[in-house]
Amino acid sequence: MQPRRVLAEQEEILYQTKKHWAVFIKAAVYFGLAAAVLAYKDPILAAVQFTPPEDLKRILPPVINGTVKGVCFSAAVVFGLLGMARLLSFFSNKVLVTAKRVIQHDVLSGGLYSIDLKHIESVRACTGLLGSLLGYGKVIMVMGSGQKIAVANLRKPHEFERELFGAK
Questions:
Q1: Does residue 57 have a pLDDT over 90?
Q2: Nearest Cα to 98, choosing from 85, 115, 76?
Q3: Start-to-end CA span in the chain (Å)
Q4: How far is residue 83's CA from residue 26's CA, in Å, rounded to a whole number?
Q5: How far is 107 from 86, CA to CA, in rounded Å?
Q6: Looking at CB atoms within 10 Å, which of 16, 54, 89, 97 has the fewest?
Q7: Cα dihedral: 71, 77, 78, 82 (round 10)
Q8: What's phi and psi for 48, nearest 5 deg?
Q9: DSSP collapsed to 3 states, the chain
Q10: Alpha-carbon dihedral 20, 22, 26, 32, rounded to 10 degrees
């Protein structure tokens, strides 16, 4: 969906931004964790082997084997899904600033969040050490009601903050 479709008549985009490419690094970490869990399945399986009592020798080893394999596979799937979510968020999220409002649009889920500029009381851009080196961070908008809305992993968060106050 084009960003123009979510705008009212005579409403123009003053500033537009997306997620920073650093989400690829975070996705790679999740994919690495998934691969590590699958790669270390056999050493984990060897670590939990023991000699069971005589009456449980036929039942217990297959149960332990299946449980360890199931937990490792489940953890790998969860890490893989978290990595995919990071990748998809890079391609699907857009944040727009117009003269009237801030719009966050998620193309994949169809989510559209709109905040009137007159309701925004304060804006804070937060970058960590890595964020300040690479140029990304989180923007936290505080509404008059005390509600906080955070948009994470944005490109140039201080520029977004400056444009938002410029539109106000």
A1: no
A2: 115
A3: 26
A4: 7
A5: 14
A6: 54
A7: 160
A8: -95, 5
A9: CCHHHHCCCCCCEEEEEEECCHHHHHHHHHHHHHHHHHHCHHHHHHHCCCCCCHHHCCCHHHHHHHHHHHHHHHHHHHHHHHHHHHHHHHHHEEEEEECCEEEEEECCCCCEEEEEHHHEEEEEEECCHHHHHHCEEEEEEEECCCCEEEEEEEECHHHHHHHHHHHC
A10: 130
The gap from C-alpha 39 to its chain's centroid, in whole angstroms, comes to: 25
CB-based burial, 63-92: b 16+ in 10 Å, e otherwise? eeeeebeeebeebbeebbebbeebbbbbeb
Locate 63 and state its tokens: 């149960």
The predicted-structure confidence for 128-156, as pLDDT tens digits, reads as follows 898 889 989 999 999 888 888 888 889 99
Which value, in Å, is the radius of gyration of the alpha carbons in the chain? Answer: 23
pLDDT of residue 107: 78
Pairwise pLDDT comparison (113 vs 25), residue with the higher score: 25
As given in the structure block, the two tokens for residue 87 are 């990748």
